Amino acid sequence: MRKTNPILAVTAIALASATTGCQSVADVVLPTTVTVTLTNTSNEFNVEVNLFYSNEQDMPDFLLREVGENVAQTIPPGESVTIQPNCEDLQAIMIDDANLIVVGGTGPDGNTDVLRDGENFNCGDTIQFTFTHTDAVVDFEVITAVQ
Q: What are the CA-CA distances from residue 52 to residues 22, 39, 70, 78, 122 (Å)?
């Protein structure tokens, strides 16, 4: 007689009972979003960010700026903003224009290259855009990390 692994059996029962209606085990277990976090490491200046994303993986950057979904945020010093688009909606993403607001609404700016699903990130990943500068303030940088 074959023995059943009790941990596996309990896990299968828990997953089956967690699914209701049209939801499947895959919906419960597999990720359906990408987490995008925008973090301002400055202690004194806001950062204005224009992020663009699209459901078209191969969209060139100039077109992404024109027809992509625009997320415009002002991030206060030391704070973060998080969005979680659906994986199908986020196939390409970029920071087109991030500005460190130093004096009179102006300051240095930065951007990123386009990140693409399957090449640079996957569904369920966290894309972290960190906005940082040195004491000289003009050394503004956008750092990208994927986890």
A: 32, 16, 5, 23, 17
